[in-house]
Amino acid sequence: MKPLTAKQAAEWCRNLGVPAEPSSGPSREILADHFGLPEDSTGRVAVAAERLAQFDGASRILIWITGWGVWPSVDRSDDFREIRAELGEPRWLDEIPAHLASKADFDYLCRMVKCAVSSLWDLYLVGPKGRKILHFSHDEWGGSRGIPTMPNKAQHPTA
């Protein structure tokens, strides 16, 4: 997995035609499908795993954490640090919020996503060519583009 700064992640997205800003990640306006997330961690992780499967086999996947630590009672920062340490990345999310994963990194990517979603962190996944995009919000909703609609579809709250 290649670690990326927010600026590098935004540039990678924009090179694929995905509007993105270093301060906030990809634009939420490009998400075509919105869905609710269960209140419990186990349910959130199950929803994330189901949608994450749509990226299996992709040559490159960007994971970009854009918000963390919103809900201290469910935060799993230590677990996330351990995953990153296994990858040789000692820096924290404020410095390196994104990783570019290859096919060989898919298991690590899944662990990162599940940890982040169970912690109610904001994150984006962007597939190769920018056709598939997946977002999870700390406000217990998600959105996607280029991924088939799945059963728990719901409208996200208005901002």
Describe it for me?
The structure is a single chain. The protein is an alpha+beta fold. The protein has one domain (2-145). Helix content is 28%, strand content 24%. It has four helices and nine strands. The protein has helices at 6-15, 41-52, 77-86, 106-118; strands at residues 2-4, 20-21, 25-26, 33-36, 60-67, 98-102, 122-126, 133-136, 141-145. The protein has a seven-stranded antiparallel sheet. The chain has a two-stranded antiparallel ribbon with strand order 2-3. Strand 8 (133-136) and strand 9 (141-145) form a beta hairpin. The N and C termini lie far apart (33 Å). Residues 153-159 have low confidence and may be disordered.
Oligomer: single chain
> Treating each run of at least 4 consecutive H or I residues as one helix, how many helices?
4
Number of strands: 9
Task: Give the overall shape, derived from the CA principal axes.
Answer: globular
Percent strand: 15-25%
Between the first and last Cα atoms, what is the distance in angstroms? Answer: 33 Å
In terms of per-residue confidence, which ranges show pLDDT below 50 for 5 or more consecutive residues?
153-159
Largest sheet: 7 strands, antiparallel
What number of domains?
1
Strand order, largest beta sheet: 1-6-5-7-8-9-4
Pairing-aware structural class of the strands and helices? Answer: alpha+beta
Q: Estimate percent helicity.
A: 25-40%
Based on CA atoms alone, the radius of gyration comes out at 14 Å
For the residues shown, what is the average pLDDT?
91
Q: How are helices and strands ordered from N to C?
A: EHEEEHEHEHEEE
